[in-house]
């Protein structure tokens, strides 16, 4: 299972790099054309905006999977282990509920977006709103996975407030 997840994450990383390269190229070419010839490519801004939104949602999904989002765990660090576990289960449940609401709203916007085209490129705006579907399903997967690991009391679970000591830190302390 982890092998499939790693391959999917690697694919997302490549897609993010491609999106960033296309955005950079489109904006750079547009700037050069406007500076030298006084006109640019109208679709450049719209393409960059679409790719930027996808880039952000793909990155946010990967950050959830890697527990890389900024967190405030000062209070949780002070709690006993059992209360920390309960807080983690409650917070994961609340995040899943929020992602359900996000998925529901994104699905409605996605369906509406098939009937509305973008101004310049004329692509259905459903492509833009599908970022919410991707993010809510992807983040939901990672949160459900971690919640299961927490309930099973696995060492691979991530519980805010728990400190894991790396092998390098163990050597320094001895």
UniProtKB/TrEMBL annotation:
GO terms classed as biological process: C4-dicarboxylate transport
Tagged with keyword Transferase: no
Subcellular location, record wording: Cell inner membrane
Protein topology in the membrane: Multi-pass membrane protein
Function field: Part of the tripartite ATP-independent periplasmic (TRAP) transport system.
Family the entry assigns: Belongs to the TRAP transporter small permease family.
Subunit structure: The complex comprises the extracytoplasmic solute receptor protein and the two transmembrane proteins.
Protein name as catalogued: TRAP transporter small permease protein
Species this protein is from: Marinomonas polaris DSM 16579
Lineage per the UniProt record: Bacteria, Pseudomonadati, Pseudomonadota, Gammaproteobacteria, Oceanospirillales
